[in-house]
Amino acid sequence: xxxxxxxxxxxxxxxxxxxxxxxxxxxxxxxxxxxxxxxxxxxxxxxxxxxxxxxxxxxxxxxxxxxxxxxxxxxxxxxxxxxxxxxxxxxxxxxxxxxxxxxxxxxxxxxxxxxxxxxxxxxxxxxxxxxxxxxxxxxxxxxxxxxxxxxxxxxxxxxxxxxxxxxxxxxxxxxxxxxxxxxxxxxxxxxxxxxxxxxxxxxxxxxxxxxxxxxxxxxxxxxxxxxxxxxxxxxxxxxxxxxxxxxxxxxxxxxxxxxxxxxxxxxxxxxxxxxxxxxxxxxxxxxxxxxxxxxxxxxxxxxxxxxxxxxxxxxxxxxxxxxxxxxxxxxxxxxxxxxxxxxxxxxxxxxxxxxx
Length: 356
Known about the structure:
By secondary structure, the chain is α/β, with parallel strands linked by helices.
């Protein structure tokens, strides 16, 4: 079986890392041949190729780049994959456009991966794709509410490689020294892009609320994005500039997670939250809002309502005083993700094509 993966991601985030892990694990399966078409200058292309995945680099500057579409169209016509598996909205639009004008028989099965719990628009390509992989039941519920046929959706959670994460976390690095903190200063960490749905404003307000109870507690936010200036302004407004630290984009996040005392997520929307899986693999406690698919990963006693800064502060302070044991469930490993995805390929490969 031939499987072509397509990803248009411009930035390296959790979704691109999931594509890397999935294609890496699938290429180890003897019954399938895997290729990945993605931006030629992207980190995903470099990382996947370094791990032995056959990468087809495309000129892909804008989301719906006609050059990327032409590369995709020509490759499908030439290679004739059995499955085309796309990983974002732009890749889905280009793949549907290519498959509509190809006249290969049998037509490849089209699968789209949905890793966010954002609503889809009316007349969206997501309403017309024959098969969707949702990373959580929460994502599935949103898709169904927006008009996607329930039978078109398969829930396959994201997965990570615990051994890889533990090895990466062993890379030397001292975040406390970098921030000029005492060696044993308490540290809560958030790892997320600085965008609205990650809601670091609530995190910053939680830091202010926690200060009376834990004046020694520092909060670090690792990520970059469009809201950096707004978040810096909120930090200044609340007078917590000596306790909340904007680190910018960090490449060695696993070392950072290992150095922290607790990982804190403040998201309003979250498909699953793969960084939480990293923390669990490293044995680190997590406190989070009950956004999206996060309650499918974490126990209720570490969750707080979305946007509730005082509750988030209280839960973090309590976690620091009473850290519990954590572990990563097997269903959230890359191997489990790849096995479930392969089973889906095999099922779809033997089904008659669905009319568009």
